[in-house]
Amino acid sequence: MSASRDRVEETGLPALGAEAQRRLGRTLRSLYERTVDRQPIPLDQVDLLLRLRHRERELLRHR
After folding, report:
1. pLDDT tens for residues 7-56?
2. What span, in angstroms and rounded, lies between the C-alpha atoms of 20 and 5?
3. The predicted structure's pLDDT at residue 6
4. Are 15 and 5 in contact (CB under 8 A)?
5. Widest CA span of the chain, in angstroms?
6. Contact criterion met (CB below 8 Å) for 14 and 8
7. Is the terminal CB of the chain with fewer CB neighbours within 10 Å at N or C?
8. How far apart are CA 42 and CA 21, in angstroms?
9. CA-based angle 22:26:32, to the nearest 5?
10. What number of CA atoms fall less than 13 Å from residue 58's CA on the CB side?
11. In degrees to the nearest 10, what's the CA dihedral of 26, 28, 30, 35?
């Protein structure tokens, strides 16, 4: 038995078949792409990404 199936049995939840998992994954991905994925990145997160990239370049220059 697989570890994931063992965890499912421990919780008493029914296991999902492979086709159900694929359908669920497609549905969730579609919902994500239509909602969250289209949202702009908040400015504070853009600033953090830029600072991290700057720091990364500094470290590469000093190698």
Report:
1. 556 777 788 899 999 999 999 999 988 888 788 889 999 999 999 999 99
2. 15
3. 56
4. yes
5. 55
6. yes
7. C
8. 32
9. 145
10. 6
11. -170
Are 15 and 8 spatial neighbours (Cβ–Cβ below 8 Å)?
Answer: yes
Structural tokens at position 1: 């038995």
| Residue that has been written with the tokens 């500094």 in this structure | 58
SS (H, E, C) 1-63: CCHHHHHHHHHCCCCCCHHHHHHHHHHHHHHHHHCHHHCCCCHHHHHHHHHHHHHHHHHHHCC
Tokens representing residue 11 in the block: 């919780």
For tokens 């497609």, the residue is 26
Type of residue found at 5? R
CA dist., res. 61 & res. 8, Å (int): 49
